[in-house]
């Protein structure tokens, strides 16, 4: 290593002495040309290395700026999406509450508004929990409705909440009739989480898919004329005593959030207050 350094130093000194000798003997131009011949490639290489180094640095700095900008834009986009979801949820909630309030104001009976705070999932919904209880003087078997139709009845009243048995519970039965044909019968919950309409064969002539069923009002538990569902299939059993029709519920129990509890006199016909009530 020391020999290489000494050889390099000796070479530089030799070149310097050669250039100095040429300049003192009147060969200045030749010396300058030789000097330029030696130094120009070195200067060009240094210049290229300098530009390359600054180019790499600028590229790295730009990359960092772009990455930071991408992070900022991604965070901003995420915040905007969250805000949009909040606005959408607020608008949906306001729309539901307006519909519920409009229904409450036009019904000719006393009602108490409530919010669904829990759902009993078991492959399908059999029960809902509403945030009204003993402190609100909610009696057992109170009918529960929504702007779309009948939900069910209160089966358990607790200090701060009540349990609603929805129509699809197999233990649920409601007196009903077909709006178009006036065919009476019973709407029952099914073990598969669906609804079916049980009626006598001689009264079932003419029942069709799409027919609307409403509460009959018999027994005084539910007001008359509340939509229950629509016929989606008819089970034709020939000469059997009873026929059955599969129903599509008027209310989506998985999505209902606000309800009305019918706390007053139920001896009213509400058909005119529901769009599908006939």
Would you kindly provide a written description of the structure presented here, covering whatever features stand out?
It is a single chain. With 278 residues, this protein is an alpha+beta fold. The protein folds into 2 domains: 1-106; 113-273, Rod shape-determining protein MreC, domain 1 (Thrombin, subunit H, Beta Barrel). The chain has 2 helices and 12 strands. The strands form 2 sheets. Strands 1-2-5-4-3-12 form a 6-stranded antiparallel β-barrel. Strands 6-7-8-11-10-9 form a 6-stranded antiparallel beta barrel. A hairpin with a 4-residue loop joins strand 4 and strand 5. Helix 1 packs across helix 2. The N and C termini lie far apart (106 Å). The mean pLDDT is 82.
């Amino acid at each position: 290593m020391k020999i290489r350094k000494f050889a390099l130093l000796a070479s530089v000194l030799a070149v310097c002495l050669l250039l100095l000798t040429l300049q003192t003997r009147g060969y200045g131009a030749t010396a300058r040309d030789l000097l330029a011949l030696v130094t120009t490639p070195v200067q060009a290489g240094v210049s290229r290395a300098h530009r390359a180094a600054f180019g790499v640095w600028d590229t790295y700095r730009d990359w960092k700026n772009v990455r930071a900008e991408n992070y900022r834009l991604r965070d901003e986009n995420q915040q905007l999406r969250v805000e949009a979801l909040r606005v959408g949820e607020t608008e949906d909630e306001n729309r539901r509450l307006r519909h519920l309030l409009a229904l409450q104001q036009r019904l000719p009976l006393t009602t108490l508004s409530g919010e669904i705070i829990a759902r009993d999932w078991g492959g399908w919904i059999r029960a809902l929990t509403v945030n009204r209880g003993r402190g609100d003087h909610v009696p057992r078997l109170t009918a529960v409705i929504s702007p779309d139709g009948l939900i069910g009845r209160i089966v358990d009243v607790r200090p701060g909440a009540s349990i609603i048995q929805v129509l699809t519970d197999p233990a649920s039965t409601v007196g009903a009739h077909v709006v178009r044909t006036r065919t009476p019968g019973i709407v029952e919950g099914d073990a598969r989480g669906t609804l079916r309409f049980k009626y006598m064969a001689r009264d079932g002539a003419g029942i069709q898919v799409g027919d609307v069923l409403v509460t009959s009002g018999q027994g005084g538990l539910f007001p008359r004329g509340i939509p229950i569902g629509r016929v989606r299939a008819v089970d034709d059993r020939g000469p059997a005593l009873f026929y059955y029709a599969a129903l599509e519920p008027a209310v989506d129990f998985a999505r209902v959030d606000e309800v009305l509890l019918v706390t007053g006199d139920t001896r009213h016909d509400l058909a005119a207050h529901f769009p599908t009530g006939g």
